[in-house]
Amino acid sequence: GAFDERVTLTIVSTSGTGGIGSWRSADQQSKAGNSVQTLSELSGEATWMTGGFGSNFGNAVSKLPFDGHAVAALIAPRPLLVTESNDDSWNNPIGCYTSAVATHKVWEYLGIPDSMGFASHKNGGHAFGEGTEAAAFIDKFILGKTTTSTTIMENPGNFTVDTKLVPWSTP
């Protein structure tokens, strides 16, 4: 979705720390004693990262000049829906929400905030449970149904975003 403009709509589902999830947020959560996958634990998941990304930066996340939101923002201005379950702690739902909030600011700046959304279902586990939201994005951006609402920024886990991780606002 980020590198091929032929992709009209990107839906990122339960991607966790290996996808859109904030690596810095995962580190904070892990240091606080929460069970969450951190970047250092991705080194064995070749499906997400190549080479030694996790092993080289897993214990030096702050040295990276980017985080999950920056990768997701590469999709703009094309539509993006991020889905996550608020109770899939290992999959970094707090970090996914943090990145979604940061990423959404790009679409806000472009004047198309309804082209990027975040859907998180309560008690969804590690499964795609955001069918209604995905259908709305497909209806609007693939099928051209302009009356469909895609203004979606759910937060059933009542997560807060650490302002140190997103220290900017939309101009």
Description:
The protein has 171 residues and is of the alpha/beta class. The chain is built from five helices and three strands; from the N terminus they run E-H-H-H-E-H-E-H. It has a three-stranded parallel sheet with strand order 1-2-3, with helices on both faces. The two termini are 25 Å apart.
Features:
single chain; 3 strands; alpha/beta; three-stranded parallel sheet; 171 residues
Global geometry? globular
State the major sheet. 3 strands, parallel
Strand order of the largest sheet: 1-2-3
SS class: alpha/beta
Mean pLDDT: 83
Strand content: 5-15%
Q: Give a count of the beta strands, DSSP E runs of length 2 or more.
A: 3
Number of helices: 5
* Helical coverage, percent range: 25-40%
Give the low-confidence spans. none
What is the fold's blueprint, element by element?
Layout: E1 10-13, H1 23-31, H2 53-57, H3 68-73, E2 80-85, H4 93-109, E3 116-121, H5 131-141
Parallel strand pairs: 1-2, 2-3
Task: Write a compact overview of the structure shown.
With 171 residues, the chain is of the alpha/beta class. 28% of the residues lie in helices and 9% in strands. The chain is built from five helices and three strands, in the order βαααβαβα.
